Every structure is written in structure tokens, then in C-alpha cells.
Amino acid sequence: MSRVLVIESSARQEGSVSRQLTRDFIAQWQAAHPADDIQVRDLAVEQVPHLDANLLGGWMKPAQEHSEIERAALDRSNQLTAELQAADVLVLAAPMYNFAIPSTLKSWLDHVLRAGVTFQYTETGPQGLLTGKRAFVLTSRGGVYAGGALDHQEPYLRQALGFVGIHDVTFIHAEGLNMGGEFAEKGLAKAKAQLAAIA
User: Where does FMN bind (predicted)?
Assistant: First the structure.
């Protein structure tokens, strides 16, 4: 049995293409792997605060010096990190907002990319501690950006995931969704076909 962690980050609950892709992924994955445990964390419903002094204090101060707010911030980071550590498969649903990922997803990453916990610094450079995991990133985009200079999603997420040791990463882009008609339909159909092949 594998554990699958799904991270939703779309601000929209209705009409969200990234959420549609996630639903398709979960249905197909469950059909192919019925014994797997799937956990969904919705960052639009349970928002993760931005990195702030309270979280930094929770990370850096001795436990006996923590304020209640710092302790709560550390507990939240520990919970999110533990979910990621326990997962065998990570699924990130990431609509493109202003050429990049949603700020909610960035906040989640800021809570789980932790020195000494999910990566460590060595004499030869940083080393990821979350090896052996697979990741799938499901994006939705109004235009066509894959492989271009304006795509700040895929390069950033590949780097962030690789930094913690997750190098087996598959991207599925639903592109051209705001370009209308047949173009949008083809973009979504292509993404759905790729999803079906994965499961």
C-alpha cells in the first residue's frame, strides 16, 4: 500500500480546471491502486500562513523559549512536514497565477522545505532527505507556456522538489484554456489523456 498526498491550491472551488484534473487523477489512481491511502489537503480551505517571525522563532529558538504563537506555528509546520514525509506519492495541483504558482502553495513549500528535516547542508552542497518519492504536478494555464521563458512554475517546482530529494517528477499541463473554443478543448483533452496513461 502506498500513501498519496494531494495538495490543492486553486482559489476556486467551482469551475477550477486544476481541481477537475485532481478529481480525475484520484478516481483513476483509486481504480488502479484500490489499497492506497489518499489524503487531500486543500490550501484554499485550510490556508497556510506566510512564512513569518513566529515560524522562524519556532524553528530556531530552543523549545523552552517558545511563545505560544511560535509553538503553534512550529506544530503546524511539523504536521505539514510529517504528511509529506509519510507520502510515497505527492500530487500538486497548481493553477498558473501571474506566470507562477499560487501564493498558498508557496506558503506550503515554505513550511516543508526545512534544513535538517527535509534537506541538509553537506560539505558537497545541499542534500535532499525525501528520496524515493514520486511527484505529479497538475497545472492549468490560460495560455501556452510550457518550455518558454514565461513559465516560472515548472522550473521552480522542479528545483524546490529536487532540493528535498524528489527527482521523479511528472508535469501535466492543461494549457490554452483562455484561448477559446477548440484550442482550449484540445489543451484539456491532452492533459486528461496524459492522466489516464499515468494511472
Answer: 10, 16-18, 96-99, 140-143
Residue whose C-alpha is closest to residue 157's, from 111, 93, 75: 93
The domain limits of the chain are: 3-198
- Binding site, residues? 10, 16-18, 96-99, 140-143
Annotated binding site for FMN: 10, 16-18, 96-99, 140-143
Beta bridge partners of 4: 38, 89
pTM above 0.70, yes or no: yes
> What is the DSSP track for 7-69?
EE--S-SSS-HHHHHHHHHHHHHHHH-TT-EEEEEETTTSPPPPP-HHHHHHHHS-GGG--HH
How far apart (Å, rounded) are the C-alpha atoms in residues 185 and 181?
Answer: 6
> 149: which 3 cell numbers?
521563458
Domain spanning 3-198: CATH superfamily:
Flavodoxin domain (3.40.50.360)
**pLDDT tens readout for residues 96-123:** 999 999 999 999 999 999 999 999 999 9
Q: List pLDDT tens digits, range 117-148.
A: 999 999 999 999 999 999 999 999 998 999 99
CA dist 9 and 105 (Å) reads: 6
